[in-house]
Write a structure and sequence with these properties.
The chain contains 11 helices and 12 strands. The protein is α+β, with helices and mostly antiparallel strands. The protein is globular and about 65 Å long. Bound molecules: protoporphyrin IX containing FE.
Length: about 450
């Protein structure tokens, strides 16, 4: 009897304890969730005044991306094609048009690598500060850039770059062999050369270094290794300038770019690299000054040269660009890399000739002027018409195919699902107008260049 009583009271107590505990847990969980809500409310408020980049523009998971190895050897580089850019949009609006960058493509490799590195060296020695410059306040950022480029090249292309002496960057530095050019680069401390010189012997991109001025909070260019500006400007005129001044001549900058760019620079994080591309048309494949930007003073035969050129030799010069922030100095690194694609090699790509023709005739007025489209369009129109008709005859397009930005923008339609990509050869254009072995720089002769190139 006593046992039964004590069991009953024990059970009641247990139930009471469980009930109380359950309520306590419920109450506690309410507090926890309420806290979470409060925190996320707060976050929401913070993020609305200082928005984080959306995932469209970057990884945003807090880690600085690292490249994966691409096992191509120095011989294979000679046959390697880079991603095929087709940054043609219709309607043509001036916007930031940035995309998340897969870090593997920060510093790309292709069959023109040796030519670009040779040209960088030639232009640096011949033109010096016209294309290369650094302000004292940019030094630390340039050193960080050099270290980042070396680390990237070694990780991404292990068969093309060999570390011969592996010291710590801060104290000892490294010695590296570029297996493509054969050059050994001694980057042990103290550095024997300007950090941008080493960078230029490693990567085929042009580099711009931008820092925020703590006094006015605005972004200025503090250094640049820019041998391939294409001819429309020189780096010595841009060095030390604010980003707005640098873009002063860019059409619709004030109206369409200025605000979003300054906001973007302010919030950009090291883990969110992006890329973009712009383009123009010319009838050469020169790197420092394209024919289209060659001035009469240096190239008096320009008009005659243009007249005599077969339209099949016309190229689109794509300026492929990336932006990333370095974690230590906070510098923004802007890279630019010209790649030439002939109109002929794109002739089997649906709507490409049609969009090109539309843009060079009906694009925004200031863009037509800035890119000198007026100079080439009469020459190109009959050729583009021929290609458009050819696409209709082949059934690639019809009269009803809408003229608009293509679905695989900013790349060629044939890279969809990476069908035409091979590990050792890169991207293989399947079009009938393309020959993989053909080099647009064949027969390049520096002694024949005009006075300003
Ligand atoms: C998201 C960032 C950026 C955007 C959207 C942007 C956009 C543009 C555009 C639209 C042009 C005209 C070229 C064309 O369309 O063919 C241009 C030119 C140029 N950009 Fe940028 N840019 C950016 C960042 C930078 C940075 C960081 C620098 C480095 C200092 C820079 C330096 C230049 C230079 C030197 C030119 C040539 C200007 C001239 O013709 O005098 N850009 N940019």
């Amino acid at each position: 009897m006593l046992d039964l009583l004590s069991f009953t009271s024990f059970s009641i107590c247990l139930c009471l304890v469980l009930y109380l505990a359950q309520n306590q847990i419920r109450a506690l969980s309410k507090v926890l969730f309420a806290k979470k809500e409060v925190v996320s409310d707060k976050e929401r408020k913070l993020s609305s005044s200082n928005p984080k980049p959306s995932s469209l523009y970057g990884n945003s998971n807090g880690t600085i991306p690292k490249p994966t190895p691409l096992m191509i050897n120095p011989d294979e580089v000679k046959n390697y094609d880079d991603r095929p850019w087709r940054p043609f949009r219709w309607p043509y609006h001036q916007t930031m048009s940035i995309f998340k960058l897969d870090i593997n493509h920060w510093l790309d490799m292709d069959k023109y690598y040796q030519h670009y590195i040779d040209e960088k060296e030639r232009i640096r020695l011949k033109y010096g500060e016209e294309n290369f410059g650094m302000l004292p306040e940019g030094y630390d950022a340039c050193v960080e850039l050099m270290e980042t480029v070396v680390d990237h090249m070694v990780e991404r292309y292990p068969l093309l770059f060999t570390i011969l002496k592996d010291g710590d960057w801060q104290t000892a530095g490294k010695v590296l062999k570029n297996e493509v050019t054969g050059e050994v680069l001694d980057m042990t401390r103290p550095l024997k050369d300007d950090p941008l010189v080493y960078v230029s012997k490693l990567a085929k991109e042009d580099f711009y270094v931008v820092l925020k001025n703590p006094q006015d909070g605005l972004h200025y260019m503090v250094a640049g290794a820019v041998p391939f500006p294409g001819g429309s400007f020189f780096i010595k005129d841009k060095l030390g300038n604010h980003i707005d001044t640098i873009h002063r001549d860019v059409p619709y900058y004030e109206k369409s770019l200025k605000k979003s760019m300054e906001r973007w620079f302010g919030r950009m994080r090291p883990e969110d690299p992006v890329e973009r591309a712009s383009w123009y048309i010319t009838w050469d494949a020169k790197l420092k000054v394209s024919n289209i930007y060659q001035t009469e003073k240096f190239f008096p035969n320009m008009e005659k040269d243009l007249e005599e050129t077969d339209p099949r030799q016309f190229n689109v010069r794509v300026e492929r660009q990336t932006l990333r922030r370095l974690p230590k100095t906070g510098a923004i690194i802007f890279t630019n890399h010209p790649i030439y694609y002939s109109i002929e090699e794109m002739k089997d790509e649906p709507m490409i000739p049609s969009i090109l023709k539309k843009i060079i005739h009906e694009g925004p007025e200031d863009i037509l002027k800035y890119k000198n489209f007026e100079m080439v369009r009469d020459k190109l129109s009959p050729y583009l018409d021929e290609l458009i008709q050819r696409q209709k005859d082949l059934g690639l397009i019809t009269d009803e195919t809408p003229l608009k930005t293509q679905p695989n923008y900013p790349f060629a339609h044939w890279v969809k699902d990476n069908i035409n990509v091979s590990e050792n050869e890169g991207w293989n254009n399947p079009g009938t107008g393309y020959d993989k072995k053909h080099m647009k720089t064949e027969g390049f002769d520096a002694s024949k260049l005009a006075g300003n190139e």
